[in-house]
Amino acid sequence: MDPLDVMQPLLGFGFLIGGPWQLARLRATWNRRSRETPGTVIGSVARSSAYDGEAACTVTQHAQVEFEVDGRTWSCVSNYGVSWKTAQPGERRTVVYNPYDPSDSEVYNELGRKLEQGIMIGLPFVGAALLISFALRHFV
Fold first, then answer.
1. What is the pTM for the complete model shown?
2. Other CB atoms within 10 Å distance of the CB of residue 27
3. Which of 11, 41, 127, 137 has a Cα-to-Cα distance from 1 of 20 to 30 A?
């Protein structure tokens, strides 16, 4: 038996179920972080894509943003960063946060949300294509 014959249906079912499940998790996070407030970039944090034992890596700059809720100052670091540009201190960014726990926050990024949503919506179609391909190869 070819290893692809085992992996293809597993991946197909994983994508078919995993995409909507992950999208539901993302939306729950977005709903939990239901409040918006303006924030100010106070610096940037460098993050590396290297894993243990890897030689090559990419370093990206993520904006660190400070915001205020009920007179108390909080900060968060953007989930999205780039290697060619650093956020400038003083820039304004929108922060979304959980009103019951402002430490549960993120720098709002419309493009990032749309990409995440698009990927999670697209995964079931990839899963269906893998399952159909498997079925056509083995049952027709």
1. 0.69
2. 14
3. 127
